[in-house]
Write a structure and sequence with these properties.
This protein has 329 residues and is α+β, with helices and mostly antiparallel strands. The chain is globular and about 70 Å long. The protein starts with a strand and ends in a 9-residue tail after the last helix. Helix 5 crosses helix 6, helix 9 runs antiparallel to helix 10 and helix 9 crosses helix 11. The strands form two sheets. A seven-stranded antiparallel β-sheet has the order 1-3-4-11-6-9-12, sandwiched between helices. A five-stranded antiparallel β-sheet has the order 2-5-10-7-8. It has two domains: 222 residues, Jelly Rolls, CATH 2.60.120.10; 103 residues, Homeodomain-like (Arc Repressor Mutant, subunit A, Orthogonal Bundle). The chain is built from twelve helices and twelve strands. A hairpin with a 2-residue loop joins strand 3 and strand 4. The longest helix has 19 residues.
Length: 329
Amino acid sequence: MIKKVFRTHDVPREDRFDLWRELVGHTHAPLQLESEHSADFQASQEVLTLGDVTIWPTTFTPVRYVRTAKLVRASDPETVHVSLPIRGTLRGSHGDHEKTCGPGTFCVLDTSRPISLMSGDGDHPHTGIGLEVPKVLLPPTRHHMVSLTSVHFTEQEGFGALLGQLMRSVAWDTGTYGLADAERLGTIAADLLSAMFAHALEAERSLAPETRKRTLILRIRAFIRQNLNDPLLTPSMVAAVHHISLSSLHRLFQGEDLPVAAWIRHQRLERARRDLTDPALRHETIHEIAARWGFSRAADFTRAFRTHYGMPPRDCRHRAFGLQVETHC
């Protein structure tokens, strides 16, 4: 994916605050900035372009951002901005509504309305992840932004949990994704945000069918990952928990890389391989690791592992710990 990096220590001290104002204006929308630390301002930001969507992990000295009605009239990119604080709080006001967002909560801002936002606690820098999505990608919830900006959204459950996981993964593990993944990740982010908004508006049924399908798949994948250690995790169980038929579940995964049963097995094998090659878990037996990831029968695990990786789990572990084997893990 396309990534642009900005760090204040790369520029002269006297230019840092003005350059930060300019960068934020390009990334989000034109803003007025006020800070008691402007003479020694420090910030870093990575802007990750995902098609029409951007995600930007950032850390900066406490600052107040103000978007006046005049600035809105002069330039409105028609986007929704979502900030996820990681360290520090955001205190903002949209019109008469005020809200405080701490770690684990989403601060939703509308570029089409005036805003005042104070970030950071005292002299401590603020760290967070920003998500910028054009409103045109958020039908039909785009017409309810006045009410949505006052809703308390968290990443503790539901679509908020999925959106938070995606934002953190993209922001902190960019090496996992290639240029070809960028647009798809942007689509997923927009779909999850739209679904989170629609759920809050009790209008989930109004989502486009393709959006409902993609968000359901994401919820199912998240459920599977959280329950890989359960030997009873099967496609039938997954279908029942999500209140769909087994045949509907299989149809959902027809366009995916793997059928649902194969995807469950792949995820279990990947977790087992990771633990087998972890020096901190060297004291655990192969059977203990296999059982932790849903393989109750040692023979079944060995056969599945050999088929998937071309070698038995014992050889994989030996190679990881520096022992000589003929095959490679």
